[in-house]
Write a structure and sequence with these properties.
The protein has about 70 residues and is mainly α. It is about 40% helix and about 0% strand. The chain contains 2 helices and no strands. The protein is elongated, with a radius of gyration of 27 Å. The termini are far apart.
Length: about 70
């Protein structure tokens, strides 16, 4: 019987797996972004908004920090 080095067997198994992946991905239908249901995606992917956000939530990327007045 033919004895192969373990690294050769691993390489062959990776090539077989890659070939199977390429063969099966060719059968997948093409998806168009124009046909996307954005409202359904938003409902499923984004959390429900409560309408209340932190005062400085949109200022994360600004260089200047938000100055908050404290009533003491």
């Amino acid at each position: 019987m033919l004895q192969l080095h373990p690294q050769v067997l691993r390489g062959l198994s990776c090539m077989v797996a890659a070939a199977a992946l390429i063969a099966t991905s060719g059968c997948a239908g093409q998806v168009s972004a124009a046909d996307a249901d954005v409202q359904a995606w938003k409902a499923a992917a984004l959390p429900a908004g409560s309408g209340v956000i932190a005062a400085d939530a949109s200022k994360i990327l600004d260089r200047e920090p938000v100055v908050q007045a404290k009533d003491v």
